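Input record (one chain):
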Amino acid sequence: MMKLTLVGKQSLIDRLDWMQTHNDARLTKALNRAAIIVQDAAKQNVARGHPENLRIGSGILRASLTHIVEPGAMRARVGTPLVYGPIHEFGGEIKPKNKPWLVFFVPSKWAQAQTRTNARGREVNRFTPNQIKQKGMGYWVRTKKVTIPKRPYLGPALESKRAEVRDAFEDVLRELIEGH
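The corresponding structure, as predicted from the sequence alone:
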């Protein structure tokens, strides 16, 4: 029969206790870092537009992208509170709820193409949406439904930053193990 003696047992127990008390805070730090990485990539995706025509209008979608870290659940969410965010990400059909028809105004391509340089030196639309409507630079549409194609910006952000997200967790786990 063989007898095994563990040398440094108390230091191992101390180390495991230290890891347990610092675990949640460090994992929350990694979640936050990973969420910011994905959020920033999603903002870049929206800023660049999407090959299937996710055009930049007011910039509100990009500005609304945010993240929430839920430490207790060890979960982070990246997204937008805007009601039209999911329809761009996943696509779908829009149908009228309280009326028989959807009715909306579509600006002419000419009106959309008219630009000017603002005080900050950025090129912006020359006409506001209200000016375009008032001047009749477009047309009204009446339809039973509108199909919006998928124009994802969140999924590709996560996919393109997968290695950086993994690195964020590896860095924190390394810190935990090494005791920094």
